[in-house]
Each structure stands twice: as C-alpha cells, then as structure tokens.
Amino acid sequence: MGVAERKERQKQALRQEILAAARDLFVQEGYENVSMRRIAEKIEYSPTTIYLYFRDKDELLKEMCDETFTLLSRKLTRILGSGGDPVVNLREGLKVYVQFGLKHPSHYYATFMRAGGKCETGEFTGSAGEEAFRKLVAGIAACVEAGRFREHDVMAISQSLWMVVHGITSLLMTFSEKFPWVERERLIDMTIDNALRGLAA
After folding, report:
1. DSSP letters spanning 64-95
2. Class assignment of domain 58-197?
C-alpha cells in the first residue's frame, strides 16, 4: 500500500469516526444540544480537526442522513426490484425497513427522530432521502399497475405505508423495554399484513 493510499484510508476512517460520534451524541443529547466542540471532545480531537472534514454541524448531519438513506435504499432495491409477485415484494420491503431501523438504531433514531426534521432542510429532490422513498413508491406502483390494490393514488399509499412502518419502528425502539410487547416478529408481520389487507382489491 502506497503512502497516498494509506493517508486516504486514514482520512476516511477519521471521517467515519466523526460521523459515528456525532450520531451517538445526537441520539443521546439531541441535535440542538450538541456542538462541534462536543463532538471533537468525544473523539479526543481538536475542533479544528473536525472543521477540516465538515463545514458545520448541518453539513455533518446531512452526510449522516445521506449515509442512512443510502444504506436503506440499497436494501429496498434488492427486495423491491427482484421480480415476482409485487405485493410479496412490497411486504418484504416494508419488513426490511423495520428491520433496518431495529438493526441500526443509532442511524435510524438520529435521522428520523432526534434530528428534529433537519434532514429535510436541504432540497428533497435529488437527495438520498428521495431515492430511498422512490424505491417504496416504485414498489407500490407495481402493485397498483398489477390491479392488486383497490386504491390507485400511489403517492397517498406510499406516504400512508411509510407512516405505518415508521410507527412500528419508532415504537419498538422507544419502548423496547418499557412495554410488554408480544413476540416482535409476529407483531411486525401482523401490522404490515393488516395494512396491506386494507388496500387489497
């Protein structure tokens, strides 16, 4: 490995360390309460070093959100673009969304719940968030085109189902140990199945 390649790897490693520290702090303390200095303290670097990688806290948050949406988008692409029964694919895609949030709680919580909606401060069009949402929209459009849903407003269905899976994810994360849930996989399957059954033609 050459010197230039080693330096680039070190640079990317530090960038990821900064993102991970910021994500943890946003979850623990809330976006508004975390400063760039606080992030620097967590990883034991000077604030000046953080500013070499990110212009400000908003830019750091945007990259963190983009990373989360990109990871989610890849997972949805594999499921919703696999061919076969569009309703089966959509069901699996919705379940993957919930599983993603539960497997990556810091990513999900910081992006969707503790960032105070600031992931949407930039342009939605062309963003990683739009790309992830469009995967869901495409999966629902395939169901509508196949005549499998009695509703035909693809965008309304997409937003409604997103509300369903976000609700499942956020509740299971927030009250994971505070509420006597029934068996988790059964509950997830039941909620998603009921939502899809309500749309069935």
Report:
1. HHHHHHHHHHHHHHHHHTS-S-HHHHHHHHHH
2. mainly alpha
C-alpha to C-alpha distance for 188 and 140, rounded to whole angstroms? 19
Quote the tokens at residue 183. Answer: 């068996």
CATH of region 1-54: 1.10.10.60
pTM of the model: 0.80
What whole-number distance in Å separates Cα of residue 42 and Cα of residue 53?
Answer: 16
Query: Is 100 within 8 Å of 172 (Cβ atoms)?
Result: no
Q: Report the chain (201 residues): mean pLDDT per 10 consecutive residues.
A: 82 92 85 89 91 89 84 85 88 93 83 62 68 91 96 96 94 86 94 96 87
